[in-house]
Amino acid sequence: MTVFRDQSAQLAACVFVLTVPAYLCLALRIYIRLWRRTWGADDWCLIVASFLFIGCCVTCIIGPLKGVGVGDTQLHKGEDVTGMMWWTLFTVFYCSGIIPTKLSIGFTLLRIAETKVVYRWALYIVMLGFTIVSMVVFLFVMLQCRPFAANWDKTIPGMYCIDSKTTTQFSFALSSTNIITDWIIAALPLPLLWKTQMNTKTKLSVGGLLSLGIIASIAAIVRLKYTIALSSSSNFLLGIKNVQMWAYVEFGLGIIVASMTALRPLLERLGWTQKSHQSDTPLEQWAAREDSRNKRLKRSLFSITAAENDMEHLTQRSEERLSDTLEHGKGPHASDHEGDISLNKASVR
């Protein structure tokens, strides 16, 4: 018996193609951030997103085995229910995971725009708007059917679900918000990079990395196209395969893009960018300043210690000379000399 039927193999293949590069880029990002001691809010957001992405991977592998991507004529008994269950679970992981992914990119840009008030406010507005819309859609997914299992099992007594038209409208809202957010985030860094002290080659490479979000937006546009064409009357699990596949691609590319924005030090070692005297983020500049300050402090402490040792040595020599003078002092003025010596000794100490 064939493991994958109809078009279900395409969805499973997408997982194997995209998962490895996504987590490889994430691992490199974690290594670089820990190595350079520049861990921040964007890294925490991406860690949260990576765990939710695992849920998407699992549902995109098991779903095709349980009916997702299979036409009605080839479905086995009960797969219309199990297929819908795995599709619903994927929707939960996707809607919750895309939020920290986009926020991670936003926090990365906030690092770059540390002193640019206008850009920071623009980023805050974009991040807040995206988060609000995404949270509303996520809550809708969780509450559209009562009980929750009614999303896939319509035989539950007393179940209630919101009509499919409303569900489609919320899907459109999320897709549109993702597309707009990706394009704004891709465009905002360009004027910032142009004004930095990086050389042209480095500006182009870093700008290219930050603008990779446009690729993720293309996946969202394709997904929106399939969502519009989706029919809920027949072959729903077959049609939903394209929507799920492109949503997975969008999520995976988002993790790759968010990870690659921190890979500039690695690109410098590979020779893809030229090393700049200016750190690539204000946080790294702060770390460099702290390191320099600590080195200067150590040098100052060493100088102070050396000076104290010299002073102690001089004091000891002075005491020895004074003692010799007292022992060999002669004449009626010996007592006067002793008083003067005591005063000199006290002043030296």
TrEMBL record:
Claim: Transmembrane is one of the keywords in the record:
yes
Chain spans, region Disordered? 311-349
**GO cellular component terms listed in the entry, alphabetical order:** membrane
Specify the Rhodopsin domain's residue ranges. Answer: 28-269
From the record, give the transmembrane residue ranges: 12-32, 44-65, 85-109, 121-143, 172-194, 206-226, 246-267
Tell me which InterPro entries the record gives. Answer: Rhodopsin_dom_fungi, SAT4-like
Keywords noted in UniProt: Membrane, Transmembrane, Transmembrane helix
Q: Where in the cell is it found?
A: Membrane
UniProt biased composition (Basic and acidic residues):
311-340
Task: Identify its membrane topology class.
Answer: Multi-pass membrane protein
Q: Which positions carry the signal peptide feature in this UniProt record? A: none
Family membership, please give it. Belongs to the SAT4 family.
Q: Show the PANTHER family listed in the entry.
A: INTEGRAL MEMBRANE PROTEIN (PTHR33048:SF31), PTH11-LIKE INTEGRAL MEMBRANE PROTEIN (AFU_ORTHOLOGUE AFUA_5G11245) (PTHR33048)
Q: What is this protein called?
A: Rhodopsin domain-containing protein
